[in-house]
Design a protein that fits this description.
The structure is a homodimer of 274-residue chains.
Chain A: E1 25-29, H1 37-46, E2 51-57, E3 76-79, E4 86-90, H2 94-106, E5 112-119, H3 126-129, H4 131-141, E6 146-151, H5 161-177, E7 184-189, E8 200-202, E9 208-218, E10 224-234, H6 242-247, E11 251-256, H7 263-272
Parallel strand pairs in A: 1-2, 1-5, 2-4, 5-6, 6-7, 8-11
Antiparallel strand pairs in A: 3-4, 7-11, 9-10
């Protein structure tokens, strides 16, 4: 018999509300899991800007894209890992975390949702595979302006100094700007010392992708398996892309949308596919 | 010790090639799993239009979005479930299936990739959560024109007559049209008798989404859990949307793109975020 674990509050519990000083409610999540250094750095970078609530996966969820959990139940466990910050570990995907946070923990839409700081790049096509960015997109679908942050350094010991500086700059801008409620920004930070960063650039998503390959081996029982790997290739020579900005020591900021309609092709097919 | 199971061919094996009649190579996948009636109907609908190769998940993968498998190995198992059609069950996600098919089974890009026929709707925002559509988008990222097909009927005993008719119409158009290699179409078919279907309509993605709720219960061990549910709400009153078309007995065809840049917001931020 499993021991009882404290679960998330029900609708009758007191939900976080704006304090007397009207501090914004900031929901924080990620895809590397609640114990990753990246989310700790994100919490610390914005802690004084609002009432922070963390709802993040209980294990790494990189590459989960916009996956949601349909076929099995989800659980929430109260954590005590950030000083003076309400935090919950969720057994689901990053997108599940956003859905559960809004519906079962906050019982309201937060003023903003922040995701990350991801350990590793989410520029160009990575926006589609990334759990970090999918959590941010999910928030925007739910009418919550959001930002996903990623540092171009996979290391568990990455230096988040530059990332924290730009997290703060961008979150302060977002909170002041009163942007559309469906706004999503994909922010990537070069893995350079903070003094070398040249500022941020508003960019478009580069057409750059992985040229796939799979490592093929046999397991200890003689059965064949494949393991995804791949080489990143940039096919896009534009100087207005996130890949260009990052290569030139700018923080890249790509505004993202969830209307996937290809309007150019739509117009073309309306004429030619009668 | 696990018994040996025949695995996918290595690079030295003979890959499917265009036959003397230059039949197109058609890759077929889905997210409901290789044993679902929907994929069987898709195979049968297009079987004579080219050389068919099926690579599909070995279990249901609905709601997996664009998830890829990074943290564990993948396996391929040769199946014999479609008459005279090469088919492989893959332990990964729909997107993994496309990657493995191109890289390790076909050893070339197929001429077209078809995904589905999904049991249930993938119109409007569902395009983002859908494994069916994510497989099609992955193909287009890899420069393979693709179509995802979904029937608005979840039932395992759904009637695919109308769906098969429009699969054939659209695949024949795609094969003739010489569309851009990054073309993706999201095709949804109403769950109406074939004689009531009025034809297809080129549409945009409706802004319609699920108003989330989670069922809360205790498991047999007294531990609390949440299970995703939700009510579909259409916020979009446009008559040019997929939701409108389907409600009016048209097959909806939405051209989809994977450049998620919000260019309107990009222009706005370039001016205001100096």
């Amino acid at each position: 018999m499993a021991k009882k674990i404290k679960s998330a509050p029900t609708k009758r519990s007191v939900a976080p509300k704006k304090t007397k000083s009207h501090k914004p409610v900031i929901l924080i999540t990620n895809d590397d899991g609640i114990t990753a250094p990246g989310i700790k750095n994100l919490v610390e970078a914005v802690k004084d800007l609002g009432k922070i609530v963390v709802v993040a996966p209980d294990k790494p969820q990189s590459g989960m894209g916009h996956a949601i959990t349909i076929g099995q139940p989800l659980r929430l466990h109260k954590m005590h890992i950030f000083e003076d910050v309400e935090s919950w570990a969720c057994t689901g995907t990053p997108v599940d975390c956003v859905k559960l946070a809004v519906d079962k923990i906050l019982h309201r839409k937060p003023d903003i949702c922040l995701s990350g700081i991801n350990h590793g790049a989410n520029h160009s096509i990575n926006v589609i595979y990334s759990g970090t960015m999918s959590a941010a997109v999910e928030a925007a679908i739910e009418s919550i302006p959001s930002v996903g942050f990623s540092l171009l350094d996979y290391s568990i010991e990455a230096d988040f100094t530059g990332a924290r500086k730009y997290v703060r700059i961008i979150v302060e801008k977002m909170l002041k700007a009163k942007l559309d409620k469906h706004t999503v920004l994909n922010v990537n930070i070069p893995a350079s010392p903070v003094e070398l960063l040249k500022g941020f650039k508003i960019c478009r998503q580069a057409y750059a992708k992985y040229e796939e390959d799979f490592i093929e081996r046999n397991d200890p029982h003689g059965r064949h398996y494949y393991w995804l790997t791949g080489e990143f290739v940039n096919f896009d020579k534009g100087k207005d892309t996130d890949v260009w900005a990052l290569a030139n020591n700018y923080v890249s900021v790509v505004p993202v949308q969830f209307d996937l309609t290809n309007y150019t092709l739509k117009a073309q097919l309306e004429k030619s596919w009668k």
